């Protein structure tokens, strides 16, 4: 059967004027679609449909059939398919607990800065400094420590200073970025054969360490955001320093950056004149408010009698406002609002590599999945070939492109 029509007088071949009619869902039609799709070098539906029509074939329901074939084309997925996404998970209990500051802490290393270490006959001797930023996951307060090198001992010293000032933490959270791995070379987030020096120190303090998978900075947004804020404040400060930067000056600047970040409002500033106090992390850390003291005559007896009540009142006021105002701002999912099918064991995926072109990305096999509390998979373990040997990697689903389901 062929198509009729009114093109009998057109200067076209007979197969173009009267194409053969084929059912779109037939196996032969699928083979023809795949063949002409390869002929147009895996272009879109319009190119493929035009090649089929020029070949003298009229597919019934062709647009939908071609779209279905192109959707499952592995080559097209390797060239153009987006990386996987999953619905944003619920906030962990560490972000929602009314615990003392820095009980649950996220940390990362940023820098470096070039400072003047000492003066020599030939001029100035320069060295580098980095900074470790500790973020309280519940109150969003920060603490910054300057380190001299990226080795393990220097990082442990900064951790000891942090624990001495802010008290021990119950949990530490960090990513596996190159800067942090460089600072703690002995830390391994999976298949640990023996405890590293950093792990031995934290375990002796009753503190556990949780690592995010590599290449998943969005899972540590609570402290990645604070690093961006600290960098902007520090850049503005360094514009006013015209002399050489020293270690002492850098430590002072970091203390000023910490004070500025901890004085930021956690919620939008209210225009109500009856509520002039701002909800800031410094309100809990320093127990001080910018509002003047209430008028009245107070005796020394009242001061000693109610001093502990005043401190407790300020802390209770912070947590009441924190629960009533700040927690409500965390309710909405800003993105990743829809659920998608989970990646499963045995799926063939394309592993994203930001350092190479997409056509050079390697394929891998999903060997294990890690469902969250809601049953959705956001982290996987995969096996890929690298330098001729099979290696295991831990990656988030945002770093893979699904090619074939098992």
Spatial strand arrangement across the major sheet: 5-4-3-6-7
Task: Give the number of helices.
Answer: 13
* Strand composition percent: 15-25%
**Helix/sheet category:** alpha/beta
Low-confidence stretches: 182-194, 290-296, 298-305
**What is the H/E order?**
HEHHEHHHEEEHEHHEHHHHEEEEE
Q: How far is it from the N-terminal to the C-terminal residue, by CA?
A: 39 Å
Gyration radius from CA atoms, angstroms: 30 Å
- Secondary structure tally: strands: 12
What's the overall average pLDDT, rounded?
81
Q: Describe the main β-sheet briefly.
A: 5 strands, mixed
User: How does the overall form come out from the CA principal axes?
Assistant: elongated
Helix content bin: 25-40%
Describe this structure in words.
By secondary structure, the protein is α/β, with parallel strands linked by helices. The chain contains 13 helices and 12 strands. The strands form 3 sheets. It has a 5-stranded mixed β-sheet with strand order 5-4-3-6-7, with helices on both faces. Strand 9 (363-371) and strand 10 form a beta hairpin. The longest helix has 27 residues, at 300-326. The two termini are 39 Å apart.
Summary of the model, kept short:
The protein has 406 residues and is of the alpha/beta class. The protein is 35% helix and 22% strand.
